[in-house]
Amino acid sequence: MIKLFKIMMTGLVLTSPVVIAQNRPIYLDDSKPIEQRVEDALSRMTLKEKVAMVHAQSKFSSAGVPRLGIPDNWMSDGPHGIRNEVLWDEWYGAGWTNDSCTAFPALTCLSATWNPQMSFLYGKSIGEEARFRNKNVLLGPGVNICRTPLNGRNFEYFGEDPYLTSEMVVPYIKGVQENGVAACVKHYALNNQEKYRGEINVNVDDRTLHEIYLPAFKAAVEQGHAWALMGSYNQYKNQHCCHNEYLLNNILKGDWKFDGVVISDWGGTHETKQAALNGLDMEFGTWTNGLNWSASNAYDNYYLAAPYLNMIQKGELSEKELDDKVRRILRLEFRTNMNRNRPFGSFGSDEHIEAGRKIIQEGAVLLKNDKNVLPLNTHSIKHLLIVGENATKKLTIGGGSSSLKVRHEISPLEGILTRAAQEKITVSYTKGYESPAVAEQDLKGAQRPEEKVINSDSLLQTAIDEARKADAVIFIGGLNKNEKQDCEGDDRLTLSLPYGQDKLIAGLAEVNPRLSVVLLTGSCVTMPWLQKVPAVLEAWYGGSAAGNGIADILFGDVNPSGKLPFTFYANLNQCSANKLGDYPGDGKNETYKEGLFVGYRYIDQKKLKPLFPFGFGLSYTTFKYGKLTADKKNLQIGDSITFHINITNTGKCAGAEVIQLYIGENKPLLVRPQKELKGFTKVYLQPGETKEASITIGKDALSYYDDQKQTWMVDSGSFQAFAGASSQDIRSNYHFEVSK
Ligand code: BGC
Fold it and tell me: Fewest CB within 10 angstroms: 232, 440, 477, 728, which?
């Protein structure tokens, strides 16, 4: 009996792999190159199967080829965590109990770390969560440039500078895709505001398009090798960007050789012929506004469904473009779902919360710290008062498509309570102000809670009375994810803090000199009370680990090292998009009249004094910069140049400084910004320690886009390199010549 069993086993072991290998079709054989597998799979598909692949079958999925064992594609927002499951054809949550994710900090916080390693950690961690949940496309990250601080979605992007955004997005994509999950970079392109987003036609000159608004997408494709990209809602050259011939066919797929999948934004497709011909590969969310309304069971009527099939069958459209779309989708399948070697992922783990905490620790920006109010003096403070709604509000909910159902969200108050207990400090809390509630939703489209009457005077008075009695006060406020705040679908109306916070902060400052203001926002806000308040920390939206990350900094366990990824304007007149009068357009058209002069480029040009400049951020220690030197004084076009600078920690605690390198051309042939960020490095130093930082730049850093010649150019001439602690705090510069 034992002998017989052995023979059977041996027979099985010997014969079955051989049989499988012999019969395995090429597309299932992962020893074969992907392109060969793509062609093989394509050759086996019927016309109907191909058409089924290029449009959605549910809110977040599209069909594979079930007959051939090719799985469906499943997408999830993005970019801060993996959204909960929704019903097949509804925005409402499906009520699963195993889909509560880790919320990572907002991308503004990530960008403020100025540390590409943090970006990789972020991408890897969120990619693991997506993988575990069997999503093969993560709808993120977003890389649209912060053109105006009023844009409701700035919190989902990396700030105002194309170089910083590019440097930060590439490692994010690599981290995600290591998990066999595609990063879908969005929203391509010129989606710089939410107001009128569905229709607005953006007019922008070619130089500005190439120098400001496209570089991060280009880096995502050419350096990050993103496998997917999402078209935006708006129009460019009077064509919607989800089927825009110039942006998709010419630039993305032509010039940049993108071999991935172009996915429409939800409801961003408008016409069958354009969708077929102008570079769109997958249509999603048609007849929805992408947020909360939709037509039911409309999938067969999508522009790229039955109408497309009919036009092909009638010979009005050829199968050639369809095949190109399907090839791209099959490539996506082989890179993700059908990659047998991809890892399994992990979900809601402590490691992911810790990753988020690290990102907050490096991304929080200390904006002001007079009289060393921070870190909190744990010897003299016995009673600490916390004021402000954001100390307890769930800020992972709301904001539109980035809204999350989270497993944990440590609020700032909880983080502070835990840490203060170790010091035996008594903590009390009072709200001080209140905002109207947003829909407490699993997701988009949930019922709005009933409005309640808020008595703001009494909330304010209670806070001020309490502040009088406390040894120190921490105010935790800012914006939130309510409509017309940091929220998709519309823009902010003003730069001011909402809900009477300015009055409250000013009142607190009057009764307690040891006041720190912690702002949780995704955009800049004005601070009329700034002179009266000794300490201000911008801590962004921190996600699951928010409270712990904030407490780490307030108590001095971690020394802040974040730097602003966008300008904090003193008023809207300092923002070129607002000042030059074209924002937000007339609902149909908008011209980016400010051209290249976005953010600090405009501040420099007009010699303005913002509240806090791009690149600004303090530390609990101080740094001394040495002299900027380089390995060359004269270079030929095409040479690289390496700059060196010594940096010393002159204070009493360990810390990190981001050295920023800006480049400017002295007498350019075409108008250029005075200086532009072209390099940076974050240096970690013990007290008293000195390190030499080196930054190498190449031809790209000296180039501008010549719109006449339609190409990047460097001219002979003299250039300056500026090394600084922010765009307005240049510590040393270096002059060099470039010749042909
Ligand atoms: C947003 C996209 C998002 C999509 C799916 C749209 O409203 O603009 O960023 O990925 O919805 O939720």
Answer: 440
